[in-house]
Design brief:
The complex is a heterodimer of chains A (272) and B (271). Chain A has 272 residues and is of the alpha/beta class. Chain A contains 10 helices and 10 strands. In chain A, a hairpin with a 2-residue loop joins strand 4 and strand 5. Chain A is globular and about 55 Å long. Chain B is flat and about 75 Å long.
């Protein structure tokens, strides 16, 4: 369980990125974090594992106060928090296997990791995870030889290799096409359900968030302006989060996109 | 501002009239300086010597040919010394330059207040002194021989390798580093998993490139007594044995061509 309590971040420039943000995510819940660019979504999830140092407030992970930890304790806490990134953030020149095993860095000593002599169980587990995300045959390829969707699967496997108690996911689909985006979102949601993992997904695509998450938190200018069921996300709420816009037109356009995509898929299937 | 408002609407030009005038003055100054420098340069020239130059060059050329091929036997050992000076000097230089580069790079320096300026000073100091000067100093400190040459090459290499390497470190992709940091990795693990894979091609490319340069530099270090082919070169020049000088130059040329080939192959293999 994750509790965020009155979290505030003020940058050196004086910009207030977060203003007393608070919420609780129970075990197994997948939360979609939406809001306009610059609302503080990225800052919020980076404050949870302190890649960005929060100015005030507390983050509790299963009763462990992450915000109060000294450096060594923070590293121990970080290994229980898996993170998945927008641009995959794989180490491009390492192999897929090395990237997945890098999720174990917090658990093994320097020389073991330097010589790539990871414990047998870690390697077995890495193979299981690669199998789970459907990349079993790619273990020996270099990360930069994979497609976007495959790289993001490696990113997911790396986060899971940490044996996390929480997943922080930063725009997982922003660099992917609509179909791959849905596959990746489905995979993430399935995995969270299998493991009872709580997750915070920072996402631009409102419809995707509604389709796959169990709860939506809307952020505007560093403040929570909506927290509730995805079904309750109507035009009024969207206007509160993003400002004035023709939301029905957006939905209609998205439906047309979906229809066109289905159409194209059928045509492709017909050609084969 | 290049955009000016006129009655017919905004007009865009690349430069303002003021900038154009400054450009014109700048070019005028360059031409004037060139003319003046030509005058200074030619004032003390003895034109009789210049007129004489082709025949002088032809004279030395005639005495230098054919090269004394049998002299090659005496060159293999100095050549081996030269290659050793370059290789060991490069290894020592790279070993020192790598931590210096990490201290100098903005994103990895342990302290921007102290460590970074210190590292940058080491780099500038090493780069500003030619390896021949380093060798001159070291021969008078350590005595003549290979050791002085190796250390001279190493000292000169620190700046070159350090500067290029720290630029490569600063150009690494921050999100890959962030991802490794988020797994709970320690500082040393961050260096080996986050930074090292990203800078490895630059590291090997720079090292081999510097080795290639060092082969050339170590060939002349003997001129000041630091061992290698240069010692033979100096001895031959002192007794005006031009055919031997030609032979030495041929050996140096062959070695440099070889090192160019090796460095091209290595760089091709790692990218």
């Amino acid at each position: 369980m994750l509790t965020v309590d009155a979290l505030t971040k003020t940058y050196k420039t004086g910009d207030k990125a977060l203003r007393a943000v608070g919420f609780t995510v129970p075990k197994g819940q997948v939360v979609g974090l939406i809001g306009p660019s610059g609302a503080g979504k990225s800052t919020l999830i980076r404050c949870i594992n302190r890649l960005v140092e929060p100015t005030e407030g507390r983050v509790l992970l299963n009763d462990l106060d992450v915000t109060a930890l000294p450096a060594a304790g923070l590293r121990r806490a970080r290994r229980r928090i898996g993170m998945i990134f927008q641009e995959y953030a794989l180490v491009e020149r390492l192999t897929v296997m090395e990237n997945v095993l890098s999720g174990r860095l917090g658990y093994v000593g320097f020389w073991r990791s330097f010589l790539r002599r990871f414990p047998e169980t870690d390697i077995e587990n890495a193979f299981r995870l690669l199998d789970r995300v459907g990349l079993m045959s790619h273990a020996d390829k270099r990360a930069d030889a994979l497609s976007g969707g495959q790289r993001q699967r490696v990113g997911i496997a790396r986060a899971l290799a940490q044996d996390p108690e929480l997943l922080l996911i930063d725009e997982p689909t922003a660099s992917l096409d609509p179909k791959t985006s849905r596959q990746i979102m489905r995979l993430i949601v399935e995995i969270c359900a299998e493991r009872g993992l709580p997750a915070i997904i920072n996402i631009h695509d409102v419809l995707l968030a509604q389709q796959f998450t169990q709860r939506i938190i809307g952020l505007r200018a560093g403040e929570v302006v909506f927290d509730g069921d995805p079904a309750a996300l109507d035009e009024n709420v969207l206007t509160r989060i993003y400002g004035e816009e023709d939301w029905t037109a957006m939905r209609r356009a998205a439906e047309e996109d979906d229809a066109a995509e289905r159409d194209a898929a059928e045509r492709m299937a017909g050609m084969v | 501002m290049p955009v000016t408002e006129t009655a017919r609407g905004p007009v865009w030009q690349l430069r303002t009239p003021r900038a154009r005038l400054l450009m014109w003055l700048g070019w005028f100054a360059v031409v004037a300086l060139t003319v003046w420098c030509w005058q200074v340069m030619t004032k003390d020239t003895i034109w009789a010597f210049v007129a004489d130059a082709p025949s002088q060059a032809a004279d030395i050329g005639a005495r230098a040919f054919p090269p004394r091929w049998s002299y090659a036997e005496k060159l293999w050992l100095p050549l081996w010394d030269t290659i050793n000076i370059a290789t060991l000097g490069t290894m020592l230089g790279v070993a020192i330059a790598t931590p210096v580069a990490f201290m100098a790079a903005r994103n990895t320096t342990p302290s921007a207040m102290f460590a970074r300026p210190a590292a940058l000073f080491i780099i500038v100091a090493s780069r500003s002194i030619n390896s021949l000067i380093w060798a001159l100093l070291l021969v008078s400190i350590l005595g003549p021989g290979l050791l002085a040459g190796i250390i001279a090459i190493a000292l000169r290499s620190i700046g070159f390798v350090g500067k290029l390497l720290y630029e490569a470190i600063e150009e690494t992709d921050a999100t890959q580093i962030e991802a490794i940091e988020a797994t709970g990795a320690s500082g040393a693990q961050l260096l080996t998993y986050g930074y090292w894979p990203q800078i490895a091609p630059a590291f090997w490319g720079i090292s081999v490139f510097r080795w290639d340069i060092n082969i050339r530099e170590s060939a002349v270090l003997g001129l000041v007594g630091a061992g290698g082919l240069g010692l033979q070169l100096q001895a031959s020049l002192n007794v005006l044995a031009w055919p031997q000088v030609t032979m030495i130059l041929i050996v140096i040329l062959g070695t440099v061509v070889f090192s160019e080939w090796v460095s091209a192959r290595v760089r091709h293999a790692i990218i």
